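Input sequence (281 aa), recorded before submission:
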Amino acid sequence: MEQDKVSAEEFQNQINKIDVDILKLLIKRNDLTKLLQAKLRLPKGMIAYEPDREAMALRGVLTKNQGQLPIQGLVKIWREILSGEGQMLRPFSIAVYAKENTHEMIELTKDHFGTMAKYIPCLSVSQAIQKIDTKGAGVAVLPLFEQSEDSWWTTLATGEHKALKIVAKLPFLKQKGKLGKEAYVISEVPVKPTGNDRTLFAIEMATQTSLASLKSFLEITGLKVHQVWPAYNLSRIYLFAVEFDGVVEMSDKRLQAFVKAQEKNIQLIRPIGGYAVQECV
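Predicted structure, token format:
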């Protein structure tokens, strides 16, 4: 074989050349990203974080990889690239709810947002949310609804934080059959459809309604309900968080059909976020 005639030194020289080429491409990528952001004119005060674009970029990498490189390592490299470019354009801090399982939450967050970001551990969800309100952080990483000590999502439902919404779910890459820490990311950044998404709504009914009944009312219109959570420890006991498969907007005909059918029984209905569905390997 021809490769048998190539010395170890020659292989090393080829690797060194590839390293230089990779560096040049990363520099070029960074320059193009800056030019793109200048064209897009990021609004004043808005951080350079696009969870939808990042999700689509990672899916593209996974598709093109075709199993040639270890997926976990590949995603980690791309997460550093994607997160790093945002931090270079407009640095922002990440508030992390870290009262319980502190190490796991911090590591989960760092795996996603990279090594360049500043992390702020918070002992309560309200403290993490306040960091965004006061511009001390650009995003907050909070526990899943079923893993939370309280129904923190109700603050998004009632409009107490009008611009805040759920924009991502961590980790983006999950291992099938393996349980691990997960979390939601909330921020003020806009999120666009990625082709495989879920949408979260808050729905408050005027009378006693079970989770099964609410799901049935919604699904009869053609909506695909992934999960429903009740709000705990509130006087508003008929408030629910509903997760739909796909992108659902207030103007969606299916949702409007639900509103019309339950017109006298709906107290509140409001979108509270959405995210690109995680990839499983």
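Checked by second reader. Residues 8-40 form the longest helix (33 residues).
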